[in-house]
Write a structure and sequence with these properties.
Elements (H helix, E strand, L loop, with lengths): L1 H44 L1 H8 L3 H17 L1 H10 L2 H21 L3 H15 L2 H12 L5 H18 L2 H10 L1 H21 L1
Length: 198
């Protein structure tokens, strides 16, 4: 009986440590999810700059936005398979690197075709984050709190959408649209490193 109580006392700190750790991992992925909705909305805010930079009309501009959604659509089933096979952390890490590279390529694109490629890479890269975030929640959080956690995911998504409005306008007026997307790519590299580290 005494030995059992001692083992329980030893387990409690480990449980508390694990509970803190799960919040760290979840928060990093939730911050990554902000980039997902940010990139989804961002091109609409810099429409005039993109049309001027590439000399394009409404149809070509719509294609820039569509590249993200084509890629996102293609990756929905593979995202789940990857999260199951190699795990959420590795999946988000590697695909975030792809999204970061895509954002930089888009920001530096000399031609419309390269801009399409950059946006497609961003769409592929960010497409895995939501599935992996839900996978983490289902594994590490109590089922009774699942709906609450999904609500927090929605909060992260809406934060990204908000940042892609007035804050993005200020950023592009200060840095220009190209450098803004390059900086976004660098920020995603940082969060990819955090995901790998934890």
């Amino acid at each position: 009986m005494i030995q059992s109580n001692q083992s329980m006392a030893m387990e409690r700190p480990d449980i508390k440590k694990l509970e803190r750790y799960r919040w760290v991992v979840w928060t990093i992925l939730a911050l990554m999810y902000i980039f997902v909705t940010f990139h989804r909305m961002a091109t609409g805010v810099v429409k005039a700059e993109l049309q001027e930079a590439f000399g394009i009309g409404a149809a070509q501009f719509a294609n820039i936005g569509s590249m993200y959604f084509y890629a996102y659509f293609i990756m929905q089933i593979p995202s789940g398979i990857l999260a199951d096979k190699i795990g959420p952390r590795k999946t988000v890490t590697w695909f975030s690197l792809l999204a970061a590279a895509g954002s930089v390529i888009f920001g530096l694109a000399p031609t419309l075709a390269i801009a399409y490629l950059g946006r497609f890479m961003v769409g592929i890269g960010v497409s895995v984050v939501f599935i992996c975030l839900i996978k983490i929640q289902s594994r590490w959080f109590y089922s009774k709190n699942f709906a609450l956690m999904v609500g927090f995911v929605g909060l992260a998504a809406n934060s990204g959408a908000l940042l892609a409005q007035t804050p993005l306008v200020y950023a592009t007026s200060l840095l220009g649209w190209r450098m803004t997307f390059v900086v976004l790519g660098v920020m995603m590299l940082f969060f990819a490193a955090l995901t790998k580290a934890f």
